[in-house]
Amino acid sequence: MQLIRSDINIDFIGKSKTALIISALMILISLGALATKGLNFGIDFTGGTLVEVKFDQAPTIADVRDSISPKGYGNAVIQEFGSPEEILIRVQNKNTEDSSTISNAILDGLGEKFGADAIEMRRVEFVGPQVGEELTRAGIMAVLVAMLAILVYVTFRFEFRFALGADAALLHDITIVMGLFALTGKEFSLPVIAALLTVIGYSLNDTIVVFDRIRENFAINKKRKKPEQEHVVVNGSINQTLARTLMTSLTTLLVVFALFFLGGEVIHDFAFALIAGIVVGTYSSIYVASPVMLSLAGRFKADEDEIKAMEARP
Amino acid sequence: MHSFPRWKIWMILSVLLVSMMASLPNVTSVPSWWPSSLSNPMSLGLDLKGGIHLVLDVDVDKAVSHSVEEDIDTARQALRKEKIRYRKLSAEGLSLNITIKNSSDLAAAQTILNETFTTYSISDAVDNTFTLTLKESVADETRQFAVDQAIEVIRGRIDALGTTEPVIIKQGSHRILVQIPGYEDSAHAKQLIGRTAQLEFKLVDEKGDLDKALTGILPPGDIIMYGPEETRKDGTTYRQPYLLKKRTELSGNEISDARVSIDSRYNEYAVTLKFNSKGSRKFDKLTSAHVGERFAIILEGEVNSAPVIRERIAGGSAQITGSFSPAEAHDLAIILRAGALPAPVKVVEERSIGPSLGQDSIDQGMNSIIVGCVMVLIFMAVYYRMFGVVANIALIFNMLLILAVMSIIGGTLTLPGIAGIVLTIGMAVDANVLIFERIREELLLGKTPLAAIDGGYNKAFSTIVDANITTLIAAIVLFQFGSGPVKGFAITLSVGILASMFTAITVTRAIVAISTERSGRIEKLSI
Questions:
Q1: CA distances from B376 to A205, B170, B457 (A)
Q2: CATH number of B195-350
Q3: pTM flag (> 0.95)
Q4: CB A247 to CB B468 under 8 A?
């Protein structure tokens, strides 16, 4: 079976202007959403308490609020989580008391109103303010270090402009996925950072495969009597790898959708970030990485020795 | 291509055998002759089996300042022994301030302080005052010791809960990670762990004027402490004040045992303490010297009771009373037996999972793995036919290898870890997709089937390595900066990527090689 015809030749590079506009628009919307709505940071980063409770019978949100109001948490964020019987309660840290006891008070309040046997503690998470700061710092560091490490690796394996193209695609992907989180108001938590890093790895994986073919074809092209122009070679390379790019995205999307629909509420946003990242990452490896790399042609002219050294690499 | 090296086939078969052996403990119990390194199942993270996960912060600076405060006593004794009169002794953070009364004693004081306080750096006297500052290396030692001691104390308390395999380990320089699998009552656990259980015995200053002291005129060497909050008949609350000698005569360190008992007078639950030999001697001396006076039992900064010493008590025990419920008395006995925390601890992070959520996560995770896997298997078989089936064999081998490696390295499977495995399923076939697409291209160029296979594998190889290394970089960074469950994701993703490079390249190639060898000349590939 073959979905992509082997002699396919779409003019991707020719349409890179249109792609540029689309990408710029998506990035602008993302940045706008991030600036105005902002991310809905989870307690991993803001600090706070999260209590997930399963009730025997679906309660109303108002009843739940009534039960914890006497304990001083009437302003808590209360929402359904997966099913009507499961309720998620989120509370900010308080400065005045030992915040780790907030969950005790909430569970006590629920027990008093609904009866201790009618509720079941599913999950309690508490993140102190200091830990929240540390996790935020670690998260930002992780994304930066990953991007830097990749820049170094791609520079070493290819050329500096390839590395910049790859990193441009990564920035593009991360910005749009984060923008999507800001737009939808989905919770931005620690696992989502993990998903972002995976998207970085994945998007790069795609980009590298294309770059690899470009490198190979550049080498062949140089030996030709009448070398073709760079952008023709690049476009050909993208077409040659198109079947693989789409196939891998498809198999990966298959499993991530399984995770999204079957993996449970806890993993839901994580899977959402992956889906968004894989879609955007596939797009960017075709429409962002290579055009950026092409547009940087000649800016970082490698000398003869370097080209030779590069060709000698496997 | 025709002579696929035999050793490679043997290597693949050995890896297969070892993987199966290492995976078996996850499914069933293994016989005793099974190699011990292959006998351990993969452990489940707390988010899957349920339990309490706490990160505690030890207030190590309190431990240091506390030890400096205790040295006031040492200074007092040293100066008294040399008959040097002092005006003021005080502690502040890392330093002790000692003010000598007569300038003529300064030289002698300097000598004795130098002798006594080798762990401090001592300044020259300014206005008759010496400032002793605890050396930073000593302070550091005290901090480390406080954390180590806190771990021991907390271990003692948690062991008393009777759960299996609790984890209590140091995290960073002053944090402690506590995991209690299979335990649900997070409030109880936090209360049991968080109490300092500082127990002190101080004498009541019977001669001092409590009323005057309450107005602020405190006799030197005295301190006011309060009893627990009580409610009067009219509904207002009050706390009984006590005027006590500052000096701590006995502390919880000198206890050898604590048991729940029944207080015979009021028929209430109480906790009976037994002193160790040093404590007994001190208690003996204290009671014989102060018959008729009261001594106060202070628990966590609150006066529990102040009984009158009626006679000398040898081989002593003491009783702590209060309107305890049986559970409260039980907890108090546990924490007193385990000893006091050297410094206050605070819960800075908690991630506790109820047992039902853990089980749900396992079920949902397994469902995702199975459904994701089946979809990919079908897709590959339909799209690449025979070669797809070969890739599928490699994929199943890959799953087995992940399970085996996770078991051998003692990895912990978490919910994000399951997600990592699911993701690996999708990405593991990538290498095969690359190879197969390349083979198709080679065929189009008019190569013979065998040459196309060779070309496909050779040309795809460097691409596969490059593509996987970049994903591996992201996974390693994630492992470095991630915490807890996220680390689990990084581990399974890394293991999955490495395993997939082996299965997708070496294993599929071996299968293809063997099957083409057998059938001799091949006209057409099923790809």
A1: 19, 43, 21
A2: 3.30.1360.200
A3: no
A4: no
